[in-house]
Amino acid sequence: MKINPAIANEFSTAAFRFGHTLIRDKFTRYDENDQKIKAINFTDMSFKSDLAYNIKGEGIQSILRGMVTDKCKKFGSFGFELQNKLFGKIENNEFTAIDLLSANIQRGRDHGIRPYVDYVKICHGIDAKDFNDLLPLTTAENILLLRNAYQNVGDVDLYPGSILEEKISNLGLVSSTFACIIKRQFADLKNGDRFYYENGPSVNPSAFTLDQLAEIKKVTLSGLICSNYDISSLPQRVFFLPTFENPKVSCDNLKNQINLDLWTGIL
């Protein structure tokens, strides 16, 4: 059976925009000595590269140090900056900005995304005819919010319905319906692409050898950041906060994680 690896509309238009709910209003920054310096608002740096290229050493490195040290926002919550100040400008003495939550909902309608209940049925087998049918996925408080915004459960848009769901677990980032859509998308991207890097020579004649694959899998995101930015230390598991179990280590120990000698002389 052939698998289509194309990007699904509901993935790009709704599910993979879950990250918008994780964005902080303010970004803490740290200098090269891991000392806090002045925080910056999200909208003060969006599409503004001068902060990243600050020659005083308070540029992109200071922002990255803050991002790996601070928690993101809780899934399902939208910051003040994203709802009231995004792409803000003053014209004719009047301030205007974009509400990203509203924009995401409108984008789903522009793209013809099906109602939230359709994906609830596809992903969970729940045929929701009433708001209370959603109780296995969310709370009574969130259902009340949906009732106040929509006359019928069949009118609920995919984006707000999904971000009001409870997360699968504390180890995950998204709700169950978004997780369902994202999982299917990445499975299609992997299984529908013969050039996927783990495929063997029976599928891809130019496949990596097992030794090359083993080297590739040694590379971590912390190692990539250390190799490309002027940062002295990072947690080994950079997606997790630095703790006693996940301490910061010297970038000297995280760089050059791959032995490129296995690729020499193959061309």
Structure characteristics:
single chain; 267 residues; alpha+beta; two-stranded antiparallel ribbon; 34% helix; globular
Sheet bearing the most strands, described?
2 strands, antiparallel
The share of residues in extended strands comes to 5-15%
Shape: globular
Using the CA coordinates, give the radius of gyration: 22 Å
Strand order of the largest sheet: 1-2
Order of helices and strands: HEEHHHEEHHHHHHHEE
In the predicted model, the low-confidence regions spanning at least 5 consecutive residues are: none
- Based on secondary structure, the structural category is alpha+beta
- Rounded to the nearest angstrom, the distance between the terminal CA atoms is 33 Å
What does this structure look like?
The chain is α+β, with helices and mostly antiparallel strands and 267 residues long. It has a domain at 204-263. It contains 11 helices and 6 strands. Strand 3 (86-91) and strand 4 form a beta hairpin. The longest helix is centred in the last third of the chain and has 16 residues, at 176-191. It is globular and about 65 Å long.
